[in-house]
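Notes from hallway chat w/ T.B., transcribed later so I don't forget. T.B. wanted the structure written out for a chain they're using in a teaching module, and asked if we could keep both sequence and structure tokens in one place. Agreed to drop them here.
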Amino acid sequence: QVHKTRADDYDQRAIFPSQTFDDLHRAGLLCAAVSKEFGGLELGPYHGAALPLWMITRRLAAVDLSLARCYEGHANSMVLIDALGNREQKQRFYAGVRERGEVWAAWSGEPQTPTLNEKTPVGTRLTRVDGGYVIDGSKVFATSAGGARWALLLIHLLGPGGARHAAFAPDGLLLLACELTDPSVEIDTSWWNPIGMRATASHRVHFRGTFVSDAQCLGTPGQYLRDGFQTAFAPHYAASFLGAADGAYEYALAYLNRQDRAGDPYVQHRIAKMAIHVQTCELWLAQVAQLWRDKAYKEAQQAGVRARFVVEQLANEVVQHCIHICGARSLLRPSPVERILRDLSFYSRHDNADHVLATVGRSLLDK
């Protein structure tokens, strides 16, 4: 109940959920995806233990989808360090998480098409200098800005675009660990004023001659895209969507217990659909996790993209069924359904569903 009260406060003020992350640190969950050698629980797809990690995120999302998104970004950063970092990098970066509760994020967002009200372009550029790189420019949708101590930055050597929007060959894409306490990093809080996912604090961040040393470069250029890490993370997004559906389903059941409407056949139909949708999502994620356990990596990545699409559709339907059952009062604060609706509607735009479906189609047509 404490976390639910906090979630409303974080949402209304659009601030990073720092107190809850302190709780996650004390519970050892910031190290969930850290290998056991460095003091973690060794959860995640590349350790054959994807489902437990996804279920942690799912339970967080049932209370606060914004919190789950921040946690998901942190956990995925740990997965990337584990997969791409050398021993010295793991020792350095994991120690901060384990001992001091340092939060990580992964930032790619550099959309090249400006909105009507944007006066300055988005994008970052790298300059090679002795011992590393200098970053200039800006990123948007920078989740956990102001709460994270470190960010993994996806930046292309040839110019703006990040990982999602660059028209360049993938071999020039670098993954750089940037310490956000550097005075050359500036957070622009005026940019982030969305309808939902407000507590992710996904601000615009400016880099003004920010130096990142070679010791903070992870993996080889282009490895993030070549090894399919984006598709590896797709089912983790789906776990967050499923958590939002859980929150709506739990609210609907509690509401019906208070209202004594269990005999209404239309209510029975909607509750049945909600339960079936939730279980269908669970089965999809379990199937993807099993493929990761079996080290069927290509199949796991393809199935993960499909699961991400299916879970988004079903989670949104669950929320709509909840609203139909509980009526307009469920959309009045302090009802959590109002926040779940806003957050899920916004977060499911993280990857356009049409593009996700096209990715599935291309894999089937071998294009």
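Follow-up for T.B.: The first strand starts at residue 104 and ends at 107. Might be a good example for the class.
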